Amino acid sequence: MFHMLKTDREEREDTIEIPLNTHTEIYEKYSGRVEKVQEGFAEIHLDIVKEMIADEQGLIHSGFIFSGASFAAVVAVNEKYGFVIGSVVNFLAPVRDDDTIIYKAYARQKIGRKRVVDVIGQVGEIKVFIGEFTVVVMEKHILNIKLDEITSSEFQIDEK
C-alpha cells in the first residue's frame, strides 16, 4: 500500500486540470467538494458538520470520513463509469465538528479494468486517514449490468 514516491505525487499535483467525468450528482455536504482534478490525481475537501456527529463527545462517524475518501478515489480515476469495488483503510486520528478534511488521491496502477488508488486525508498537518481503493471501470453504468456479470472473477479483488 502507498507505493508512489513523493516526487511522483508532486509532479501529478502540478499537471493540467481536467473536467470531472464521474459522480457528478454527488451530494457535496456528505462526500466533499472537488478542488482539483488532474490525470490520475484528485483533491477533495470535506467540511465536517454537526450532522456527522456520532456521540455526545462530538466524534465524527467514520462512514462520513470514508465517503470523502471513496469519492476522491473515483475522481482520481475520473472515468464516467468508475466505481469502488474494494478498499483497505485506516482511520488514524479523530475528526471533529468544524474540521475540514483534505483528501489527496493518486491513481498508481492499472490492471485491466481495475485501478488502484492511494488516498490520504489530512486535517491541517495531521493525517487522519489513509487508504488503498480498487476502482473498476465499466463500459456502462453498474446498475445496468446483470448481477452475474458483476460477480464474475473479473471484478473480484485479488487476495494478497
What does the model show?
By secondary structure, this protein is α+β, with helices and mostly antiparallel strands. The protein has one domain (6-153): Thiol Ester Dehydrase, Chain A (Roll). The protein contains four helices and six strands, in the order ααββαββββα. It has helices spanning 6-13, 28-31, 62-77, 147-150, and strands at residues 33-38, 41-47, 82-91, 100-111, 114-123, 126-137. The chain has a six-stranded antiparallel β-sheet, sandwiched between helices.
Helix content: 10-25%
Spans of at least 5 consecutive residues whose pLDDT stays below 50 are 1-9
Span between N and C termini? 11 Å
The SSE string, one letter per element, is HHEEHEEEEH
Which fold name fills CATH's third level, the topology? Answer: Thiol Ester Dehydrase, Chain A
Strand order of the largest sheet: 1-2-4-5-6-3
**Under the CATH scheme, which class?**
Alpha Beta
CATH architecture identity: Roll
Major beta sheet summary? 6 strands, antiparallel
Number of domains: 1
Radius of gyration: 16 Å
Overall SS class = alpha+beta
Q: Mean of residue pLDDT?
A: 83
Annotation field: number of helices: 4
Shape: globular
Strand proportion, as a percent range, falls in: 35-45%
